[in-house]
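Hi there,

I know you've been waiting on this one. I reran it after we fixed the sequence typo, so this is the corrected version. Both the input and the resulting structure follow.
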Amino acid sequence: MFNNISPFNASAINRRDLLRIGGPGMLGLTLPKLLQAQDATVAHAPAKTAKSVIFLFQWGGPSHVDTFDMKLNAPSEYRSKYSAISTSVPGMQVVEHLPETAKVMHRIAQIRTVHHTMNNHNSAGYTALTGVEPPTDDQRLRDSLDLFPAFGSIVDAVAPSTNDMPTFVSYPHTISDGSTTPGQRASFLGKIHDPLFIPNDPNDAKFELSQLSLPSNVSFGRLQDRRELQKIINQQTKALDQSAAAQGLNAYYEKAISMLNSKQIRKAFDISSEPAELRDAYGRTTYGQGCLLARRLVESGVKFVTVYFSRSIGGRSKTDGGWDTHGFDDTRMYEILPEWHFPITDHTLPVLLNDLDSRGLLDETLVMWFGEFGRTPKINKNISRDHWPKCYTALLAGGGVQGGAVYGESDKYGAVPDRDPVTTGDLAATMYHALGIDHTTEIHDNFGRPLPIANGRPVTEIFT
């Protein structure tokens, strides 16, 4: 049960203190967050251009050369099988299957030279979710306190919300490829900085926050009474009083109970209150309604929202899965993408940007759209493309970003950066810069070593 507790902390925990104050699954209250957040050394903050971030993580790896960085003059073995169409930015083109996205490219900045060295999904996913490369490129990479925290967890640690809303929310999947992909939680920062994770499907007619719901036989007053009893027990146990882990436990309980009593949080998650026409515009899919929910959350004051495109990396399906559709003889990439990935993208990204703009939220909300890598410039024998981390495209919009901008240039095949290369650490620094967080701010790992929150520099050239 206490997998993340070191022996010297485990011995300090009094079993009587682990009161079951609700039902199972109630925000994890039966498995307390025992690791205390470590202090962060905050450096001088840059000017803030965004109040919040929506991170639309495209698990599986979209093909940059079949979407936003098409090489129409490349030889046939490299050139996309799709055609290109004009966009709202003169001289800019995107793939023909994204007509609505083409209309909002004047709101979007492209970084076309993102690169790293991880070829496997789990290691590349971790790199994209944290901005840090693991020691080795290993598909068996697993969660470890030696690995870096998620972007949102760092934001929660160094610049948490002060408005009674959670700082970091993620949903509706825990992504994995064999094993769970690291970089989705707080790691060595302590579980107090884990996201408020919602596994429920926002497209479900019965969608609700079961994690923030009391069992029918437990009133909020009874919950408070049990919390007061717990405080008395804590005061009587010197070991608990002296334990850093126990202090983290107390902080977690206080945070959880405040969420249980928050009408503001419940209102933010009440997606059923949205007009049916708007819900239809986003698309009646898990991902589509997740994007709509992200707008509701930042509108209510959540600082960082991660929406995962899919639970799996992808495969043969034309109705589900991520962007990893290579290597199949009977159902090829060029048949799958127009059936599933392109329509759902064209129903969400432009709708989200226009919705944010109509509410006056786009200028203060940074929207990020990218995956763990791109796709090989050369088409393989299955008329598809394989993993390619050496150069791919990230989209950023809102939050002070200059719409229509293109930063960096790939070579004539889309294989490597030709000008202005950008690392995932640079992407992380750019995101922190938009939030007014100095990217050289230090956090401390599990051994107390200081680490900068981003190994890179902000791409300030894309800001207005």
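Quick highlight: The chain has two domains: 16-45+213-268, 51-208+272-451.

Best,
R. S.
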